[in-house]
Amino acid sequence: MVEKPSNSFPKQERICSKKLMDRLFNGRESHAMSAYPIRVIYRFETQEGGDDELPKAQVLMSVPKKCFKRAVKRNRVKRQMREAYRCNRHLLTAQVPENKSVLIAFVWLDAALYPTKEVAEKMKNLLQRISEKL
């Protein structure tokens, strides 16, 4: 029987470590692409044979204060991006090999709000393009 993928978005799949953020944004192996209004910065990493198993993908969502001064709007956009990623991450995680993982940062570029459906389409497009690079 085929196992249904989990729809949760646990803390292990989020980038919280400053070290990981620096590696993602300052690393020479980082790549970027856009599907306006979302820009994605990603980096592939090989996992060493340690005992704590890292998730196949770790994600960071960012909405700059320059785009939305009000926290309510920034939070809405982050919620839309998180939900779009959570529903479509199987497009990427199914393609990631066993010994690899990917660090991803999604950055919002526009000062306008978009419908959730449009944000989900852009996120799906980006995830498919990243999985093709594997």
Automatic annotation (TrEMBL):
What keywords are annotated for this sequence in UniProt? Endonuclease, Hydrolase, Nuclease, RNA-binding, tRNA processing
Q: Which NCBIfam families match?
A: rnpA
The entry sums up its family as follows: Belongs to the RnpA family.
Q: Output the superkingdom of the source species.
A: Bacteria
Q: Which Gene3D superfamilies match?
A: 3.30.230.10
What enzyme category does the UniProt record give?
hydrolase
Q: What's the catalysed reaction?
A: Endonucleolytic cleavage of RNA, removing 5'-extranucleotides from tRNA precursor
> What EC designation does it have?
3.1.26.5
Q: Name one GO biological process term.
A: tRNA 5'-leader removal
**What is the source species?**
Segatella oulorum F0390
GO terms under cellular component? ribonuclease P complex
Q: What is the lineage of its organism?
A: Bacteria, Pseudomonadati, Bacteroidota, Bacteroidia, Bacteroidales
The record's note on quaternary structure and interaction partners says: Consists of a catalytic RNA component (M1 or rnpB) and a protein subunit.
Record keywords: Metal-binding included? no
Role of this protein: RNaseP catalyzes the removal of the 5'-leader sequence from pre-tRNA to produce the mature 5'-terminus. It can also cleave other RNA substrates such as 4.5S RNA. The protein component plays an auxiliary but essential role in vivo by binding to the 5'-leader sequence and broadening the substrate specificity of the ribozyme.
Protein name per its UniProtKB record: Ribonuclease P protein component
Output the SUPFAM superfamilies linked to this UniProt entry.
Ribosomal protein S5 domain 2-like (SSF54211)
Q: Which GO terms describe its molecular function?
A: 3'-tRNA processing endoribonuclease activity; ribonuclease P activity; tRNA binding
